[in-house]
């Protein structure tokens, strides 16, 4: 199967949203998706940590962990009322603004 757009992915992925208060934007749904996003990001990070330690990376397994990150990112965005395309656009606008101001490097949310 080949996914050709964020919209297509979101439509398919939404069928697997089986968690408390899914689709409501409630604190429970937001917490569940945020914790899932953090957990899956941690699993991906563990694969990279082991690359540093052992010098080997199972790329297909790392990609599977990233796919879980994508699922939780998608669910988190939906709980906030955004699409993945919305999130991507927000990110590009933010990065373009930082680039124009010479602030791509550095610290802080509002640099």
Brief synopsis:
This protein is mainly α. The protein contains four helices and no strands. α2 (27-54) packs antiparallel against α3.
Notes on the structure:
The chain is mostly helical and 111 residues long. It contains four helices and no strands. The chain has helices at residues 6-13, 27-54, 59-80, 84-100. The radius of gyration is 16 Å and the shape is globular. The model has no long low-confidence stretch (mean pLDDT 94).
List the helices and strands and how they pair.
Blueprint: H1 6-13, H2 27-54, H3 59-80, H4 84-100
Helix pairs in contact: 2-3
User: Which radius of gyration do the C-alpha atoms yield?
Assistant: 16 Å
* Averaged pLDDT: 94
pLDDT below 50 for ≥5 consecutive residues: which ranges?
A: none
Q: What is the oligomeric state here?
A: single chain
User: What's the shape?
Assistant: globular
The total count of strands amounts to 0
Helix content: 55-70%
Distance between the termini: 40 Å
Note the run of SSEs as H and E: HHHH
For the largest beta-sheet, the strand count, sense and barrel status come to: none
DSSP summary: helix tally: 4
- The proportion of strand residues reads under 5%
- Structural class per helix/strand content? mainly alpha
List keywords for this structure.
111 residues, mainly alpha
